[in-house]
Amino acid sequence: MKMTKMVNSAQVERDWIVLDAEGKTFGRLVTEIATYLRGKHKPYFTPHVDCGDHVIVINASKVKFSGANKLEDKQYHRHSGYFGSVKSEKLGELVQKNPEKLFKLATRGMLPKTKLGRAMLKKLRVYAGSEHPHTAQVKAKEN
User: Fold this and answer.
1) Looking at the domain 16-126, which fold is it?
2) Tens digit of pLDDT for each residue in 96-109?
């Protein structure tokens, strides 16, 4: 009888994946990031175990967006809970000032909304430029 293999967190092998965002479409790149963080690209994917890899995104400020006016029209809102404290930022401002926050916001929506999802999101590192301090962890292969 064949049984489905369920891995636990001690059996998971984690890799470091480097993704270059220059010229890639934002939504498709974030979907790829979420797949790597979740571990769905591995043959032993288990939904209740964090079996994803570490993901490094470089050149985050050079990502491409679909839509002609999306950089001026799309807004991200945040609210502290007090009356009248809604603050908004346009997508174009967020890409220039803080692309790390933009990638984390978009990726968070594609991960589980539990402790497991928060643990997966901690393995995402985003850098606006082409340099990153994780060269010792990354093997010779880069995507």
Assistant:
1) Ribosomal Protein L13p; Chain: A; (3.90.1180)
2) 999 999 999 999 99
